[in-house]
Amino acid sequence: MLSCRFTILTAMLAASLAAAAQTSTTLKDAYRSSFHVGAAINEAQIAGTDARGAEIAATQFDSITPENVLKWERVHPKPGVYSFDLPDKYVAFGEKHHMFIVGHCLVWHSQVPDWVFEDGTGKPLTRDALLKRLRDHIFTVVGRYKGRIQSWDVVNEALNDDGTLRQSKWLKIIGDDYIEKAFEYAHEADPQAQLNYNDYSLENEAKGRGAIALIEKLQAEGIPVAAVGIQGHDSLDWPSIEQEDASIAAFAKLGVKVAISELDIDVLPPVAPGSADVSMTLKADPKLDPYVNGLPDAVQEALAKRYAALFRVYLKHRAELSRVTFWGVTDGDSWRNNWPVRGRTSYPLLFDRSGQPKQAFYAVIQAAARPGLSHGSDAIPIEGR
Ligand code: G3I
Fold this sequence. Notes:
alpha/beta
């Protein structure tokens, strides 16, 4: 009896996936009435040297985030020297394709050159001098794209895992209010832009609590924080569906929008679930890289189910979500191939290394068509359930 039911379900699943495979539905069309579906795009896609990746981005997504080109070390590598060639192309790409354009990121502890924190003799800057440098940077970068970049990750990853403030150079030199100042400067530079606080592991209790306290503090001070970016560097079993659901609800309750801002799902042996601490590096080990010759069907299917389950949670919160952005276009582009172990073969996204949609892509499309399924279920929505 059980095996008969299993066979029928399997046949229905195969039929459903085959039907989806033939559909020309795109991610952005499937979710158009719910939220933007975005992707982080890299230098090659922006410059056009990866024409296939750029084409997938243009066809499938209606929002973009620059994976790296607007980070301080890239856009402002030396005092007084700005490098706007790729950022200009990035914004032009988004405008050409009528996308919701995100800026990432203005203040981060990482990828900021040392000179930013030092005077001409190498001594640490004073609070006032660093605030002036921060203001100049924000006015120059945000000001250049005023009215064109609609949403900015103003402060990125300011919290430790226990929810306390990270002891970054920004905090050590300026004090806790560097966060407020960054939001004030960004708001002054473009009053219409949606300003975001962005971080990873916010689904974990302590860090989530820290983020809620931070947003409440900013709100009490009248700081215009409009959205929280839950990055979403997930794995097959972290966060739980309940954690994701509760986390989105908790931020939405504060009256801010929520963006799933850097979504990907790690299928490799877990090394640091939920973390995206870029300073972490581990030694290569074949045991940590088991799928160099391809992803087994069972894992492919587990990934599809996991994506479908998460998208059902996002759909439940469609009124509170502004966008769901994947951190990369194809598996080959993903930072996951190099973190926290360099040179692994990772499979975290919806398009494979040759740009073909994976089973997870069809599962995400199908989730939009059948939003009513139980949010706790990890089953791919199929006909008759
Ligand atoms: O482009 C250079 C290349 O010219 C050089 O030969 C090579 C040698 O290492 O480095 C290349 O740059 C690398 C770049 O990615 C592009 O691949 C940098 O070393 C590397 O540090 C950089 O990593 C990025 C990381 O942030 C640090 O900025 C990842 O691409 C990017 O996906 C990742 O994104 C972060 C978000 O901004 C914030 N949240 C976490 C997320 C994942 O770590």
